[in-house]
């Protein structure tokens, strides 16, 4: 069986304490958590739950989700064999490159730390909207103020489109009140930057410099991304280029799905509660790895 493991975006709704049974039962999962905990400099139990005074809650949540996703992937590969391709969108792209051996855990954490830096006085934000099929979702594409930073494409059997919107918080708040769909603006404590938009040019420059000083390795297997024009990466240079480009370029999830369909696989494991809710058709047998998977497999 040839398979892909696909990692989803950052998800503010997941309670990572649910992964404690995985750690108790799986040595490979514990090894992933120990690796991240050692790099961050905290005990493993703090990586599962609780505040860490010297780490910003947003950065800590990113690291927790990466540890959870990658530990689930290791369990999957222990049970079903190694993946022949990895994929990821947004935070999931970093997870995919780590799983493929292109980025070390140290580089991943350093990358996230650099991305997280407060580099502007602008009040930036992100939001999510389900736009019914009858509504023009391009209303949310307003360059310099607000952009569709990730298009997840048609979802729920074609009932509508899920998009992520990035921009200035006052603009997103106005769009929530006046726009054609219900826009949920993420609170500052969970997201304080306009990810994957031109407003992130300062972090793009920093991350480009970081990857010049800490070069990536060639991935062991192909990695599919949602970065337009860089949907499949097979070299260190392509991997670095996609990571840097994703800072300021809108992501195209249908493009990722189309690239995945060009790969000879017969199963995809989707490590994401968020993507499961969207009911996206990947064109092959799809297994979802989320909170329900944890409960079924680890009690």
TrEMBL record:
Gene3D superfamilies: Malonyl-CoA ACP transacylase, ACP-binding (3.30.70.250), Malonyl-Coenzyme A Acyl Carrier Protein, domain 2 (3.40.366.10)
Highest taxon of source: Bacteria
GO molecular function: transferase activity
Name of the protein described by the UniProt record: ACP S-malonyltransferase
Species whose genome carries this gene: Streptomyces sedi
Phylogenetic placement of the source organism: Bacteria, Bacillati, Actinomycetota, Actinomycetes, Kitasatosporales
């Amino acid at each position: 069986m040839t398979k892909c493991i696909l990692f989803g975006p950052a998800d503010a709704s997941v309670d990572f304490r649910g992964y404690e049974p995985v750690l108790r039962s799986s040595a490979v999962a514990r090894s992933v958590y120990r690796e991240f905990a050692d790099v961050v400099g905290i005990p493993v139990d703090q990586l599962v739950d609780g505040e860490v005074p010297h780490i910003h809650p947003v950065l800590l949540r990113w690291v927790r989700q990466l540890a959870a996703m990658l530990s689930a992937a290791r369990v999957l590969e222990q049970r079903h064999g190694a993946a022949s391709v990895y994929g990821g969108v947004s935070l999931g792209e970093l997870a995919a490159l780590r799983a493929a051996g292109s980025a070390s855990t140290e580089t991943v954490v350093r990358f996230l730390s650099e991305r997280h830096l407060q580099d502007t006085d602008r009040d930036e934000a992100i939001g999510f909207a389900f736009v019914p099929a009858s509504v023009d979702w391009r209303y949310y594409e307003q360059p310099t103020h607000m952009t569709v930073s990730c298009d997840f494409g048609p979802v729920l059997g074609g009932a509508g489109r899920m998009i992520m919107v990035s921009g200035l918080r006052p603009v997103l708040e106005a769009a929530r009140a006046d726009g054609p769909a219900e826009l949920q603006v993420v609170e500052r404590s969970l997201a304080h930057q306009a990810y994957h938009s031109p407003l992130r040019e300062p972090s793009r420059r920093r991350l480009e410099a970081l990857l010049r000083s800490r070069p990536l390795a060639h991935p062991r297997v192909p990695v599919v991304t949602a970065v337009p024009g860089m949907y499949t990466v097979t070299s260190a240079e392509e991997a670095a280029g996609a990571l840097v480009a994703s800072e300021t370029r809108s992501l195209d999830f249908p493009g990722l799905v189309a690239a995945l369909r060009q790969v000879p696989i017969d199963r995809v494991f989707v490590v994401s509660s968020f993507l499961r809710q969207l009911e996206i058709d990947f064109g092959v047998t799809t297994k979802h790895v989320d909170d329900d998977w944890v409960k079924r497999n680890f009690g």
